[in-house]
Write a structure and sequence with these properties.
Strand content: 5-15%
Low-confidence stretches: 8-12
Distance between the termini: 21 Å
Shape: elongated
Oligomer: single chain
Helix content: 40-55%
Mean pLDDT: 85
C-alpha cells in the first residue's frame, strides 16, 4: 500500500498525499472521502477529481465496458435487486460496486414490491416475478408483450382489483431463454463491480504496491519527500 502523509498547505488544513510506488513522487489525494464517493458513483470520477486523468479515463472506459458487456450478454436481466427469503440475489453485493449504474435495480425492486406492484422502463433491471406474486395489470401485460412464452393464461386475476398473480417463475424463464449467457453476463457485471472497489480504494488511499530496493535507497539519499512536486 502506498504510504500517506499530510502536507501543510497555505489554505488551511493539510492535504493528504500518497507516495507513488513507481517513482516515489507524491500524489495529491485532495479530499480522499469525496474522491472515494465519486469513484463509487462513476468509475474513474474520483481520479479525474484528483487530476489523475490517465487513470480516470482508463478506469471509466474499461470498467464500464466490462459492465455493459455483461448487461448485454445477459439480455438486460442480470443486474437486479432481490433480498426476498429464498430469492436473494447475492451477485448484487459485487455488482453494487459499479455505483450509480446499479442504482436503478434498487429503485425497480422497490417499485415492484411496493404498493404499485409495477416496475417502470419496461422492467429493465427489475427483479424477476416469482410464483403467485401479484403485479399490476399493466405490468403483467408488459411482461406478456416482451416474452413470447407468456400469455394471459399464465396469470390469475384477483377479483375487484387490478392485480394479476403470476402462475410461473420468471427467473426460471430467464434461465431457459438465455442459457449460459445469464451466468456469463452475471460474472461480467460482478467483475466490473469488484474492479471498481479496487479503484475506490486507489482513490482514497493511493496506489497499491511497494517501491523497489533501488528506489528506497534513492529516496533515502534525497532526504525525504518534502520537496517532491505533486502530481496534478
Amino acid at each position: 500500500m502506498a504510504s500517506q502523509h499530510a502536507l501543510a498547505g497555505s489554505n488551511g488544513p493539510g492535504r493528504i498525499v500518497a507516495v507513488s510506488p513507481d517513482d516515489g513522487s507524491a500524489i495529491d489525494l485532495k479530499r480522499p472521502m469525496l474522491a472515494m464517493l465519486l469513484a463509487w458513483l462513476v468509475p474513474g470520477a474520483g481520479h479525474l477529481y484528483q487530476g489523475r486523468r490517465f487513470k480516470g479515463v482508463l478506469f471509466l472506459v474499461v470498467i464500464l465496458s466490462v459492465y455493459l458487456t455483461g448487461v448485454m450478454l445477459g439480455g438486460g436481466r442480470v443486474v437486479y435487486w432481490s433480498w426476498k427469503a429464498g430469492e436473494q440475489r447475492w451477485a448484487m453485493a459485487c455488482q453494487a460496486g459499479i455505483g450509480i449504474a446499479a442504482v436503478p435495480a434498487a429503485v425497480q425492486s422497490r417499485l415492484l414490491h411496493g404498493g404499485g406492484k409495477a416496475a417502470v422502463a419496461g422492467g429493465f433491471m427489475a427483479p424477476p416475478v416469482s410464483l403467485n406474486q401479484p403485479v399490476d395489470e399493466d405490468y403483467a401485460r408488459a411482461m406478456i408483450s416482451r416474452s413470447p412464452e407468456l400469455s394471459e393464461d399464465d396469470f390469475r386475476r384477483q377479483p375487484r382489483m387490478r392485480l394479476w398473480e403470476f402462475q410461473r417463475d420468471e427467473l426460471s424463464l430467464w434461465h431457459r431463454q438465455l442459457g449460459r449467457w445469464f451466468e456469463i453476463g452475471t460474472l461480467y457485471t460482478m467483475i466490473a463491480g469488484m474492479l471498481n472497489m479496487l479503484v475506490i480504494y486507489d482513490a482514497g488511499f493511493g496506489p497499491l504496491g511497494t517501491a523497489s530496493s533501488e528506489e528506497r535507497q534513492r529516496r533515502g539519499k534525497a532526504g525525504g519527500a518534502d520537496g517532491e512536486p505533486l502530481k496534478g
